[in-house]
Amino acid sequence: MAEISAATVMKLRKMSGQGMMDCKKALQEAEGDIDEAMGILRKKGLATLAKRGERETSEGVVVSKVGEDGRCAVLASLCCETDFVAKSGDFLRAAETMADYGFVSSATEGADGICGTAVEGRKFSEVLTELVSKTGEKTEVGDFAKFELDGPGLIGTYVHFNKKVGSMVQIDTSEESAACSEAMKRAAADIAMHITATKPLELDRGSIDSEMIEREKGIFAEQVKNKPANIIEKIVEGKMKKFYSENCLVEQPFVKDDSKSVGGFLAEAAKEAGGQAKIKRFVRFEAG
Q1: Superfamily of domain 6-51
Q2: pTM above 0.85, yes or no
Q3: Is the pLDDT of residue 43 over 80?
């Protein structure tokens, strides 16, 4: 068996973040080859991940990244088992790395897309394997989305200070000059914050599944079934209006000024910017 120097063990420990004994055993198994020993420790990480496959990943962080020209942005969540690990330097660095991978990924959504993305020949799944080997906790990509503009517009992102929830919204504008205005930049950021706070179900009425609408109408009608038919119709209509205002983003009362809807707020910002604007899509992610 090759003799392993303390300096080599320390080097592997620094590279891998593993304990001294684990590093020494890996080096002994690899007969002193530090790259092979690193591979052995990675395999250990995979074993840890498999062993903890049934554990709940109820903690984690949400991260975002916006391109320099503002025409591309990503939002993603990285999840683990405990808040202690979620706040660790290794985990937070991996989360930021995840955002970098997402930015170059050909995928536009889904955990598999980002995990299979490679940067300089290294897949993000390998980054996760190393992280698991360091923390001993099950860790996985929770959600991932990538927005890219295909015309005039802008993308707003917001991650709450606790890093556990965040949103991303794409706003299309009638001309690029409107998208570049300070009024529209503020509006995009404010609407992303609004989405984070209010959890809208869909963008507008047309986006809500028709079966859900009929189910809600049926529930409301059942609640007042003993009233005359014309009264039932008016009550259901009123309750559905409230349902839409609570669940459709453009109809929700704006969190910073509930005297106007989100749609109304955006229209005012667009007018100030000298153009027109509409929300194309949004996502909201929570860690865990």
Answers
A1: Ubiquitin-associated (UBA) domain (1.10.8.10)
A2: no
A3: no
